[in-house]
C-alpha cells in the first residue's frame, strides 16, 4: 500500500509540474529509469532523497507523504540505529522501512528492512547486503520470500537455505532441493528425507544410485542398502 500510494503521488505531482521522468531524475540526481520504477511501484525512492524529491516537486516532505496516511503526523524520516548501524526509518500503519546510511560501491545499503502490512511476492522490497522483510533479497536474507547467499524464509533460494520450501547448495526445508538437502521431501545430490531422491539418498522411500532405507522402508537404485 505504501509503495503504491507514494508512487502515485510522485506521478501526479510530476505531471502537475510539467516535468518528464528524465527532468525529475536530473533534479534529484537519479536516472529516468529510477523515476519510472517509483511510479510503477517497482521500487521506493531512497529515504535520503525524499527532501530533495519534495523540493523538486514543489512540496514539503510532509506533503509528499500526506497521501500515504493523512491522519499520520510523524511521517518524516527519522534517524535510527539498527544492529549498530545508523540509518533512516519511515514507519506508517502500512509499512516499516529502515535503510542504513552506509552503502556499498553499487549504492546497495548494508541493511535494508522493509516489512509491509500486505504480503507482496513480486519484486524484492528489501534489498541490501542484509535484507529483512516480507520479500527480501541480499547476501543474508530473512523473509517470507527470501533470496540470498544465506537465505531464511518460507520460500527461500540461496547457497544455504532454511524454510518450508528451500532451493540451495545446502538446503534444510519441508520441501528441499539442492546439493545436500534435508527435508520431508528431499531432492538433491545427497538427500535425507521421508521421501528422498538423489545420487545418494536416505529415507523411508529412497530413490538413487545409492539408496539407503530402514527395514520397513522402500529403496530403489543401482546399489540398495537396508539397515
Spatial strand order of the main sheet: 1-2-3-4-5-6-7-8-9
Major sheet attributes: 9 strands, mixed
Low-confidence stretches: 68-74
Helix run count: 5
Query: How much beta, percentage-wise?
Result: over 45%
Rg, rounded, reads: 23 Å
Q: How many extended strands? A: 9
Q: Which secondary-structure class do the elements indicate?
A: alpha/beta
Distance between the termini: 55 Å
Q: Give the H and E element order.
A: HHHHHEEEEEEEEE
Mean pLDDT: 82
* Oligomer status: single chain
Form type: elongated
**Range of helix content:** 10-25%
Describe it.
- This protein is of the alpha/beta class and 227 residues long.
- Among the domains are: 1-71, 434 Repressor (Amino-terminal Domain), CATH 1.10.260.40; 149-226.
- Helix content is 20%, strand content 51%.
- It contains five helices and nine strands; from the N terminus they run H-H-H-H-H-E-E-E-E-E-E-E-E-E.
- The longest helix is centred in the first third of the chain and has 16 residues, at 2-17.
- The radius of gyration is 23 Å and the shape is elongated.
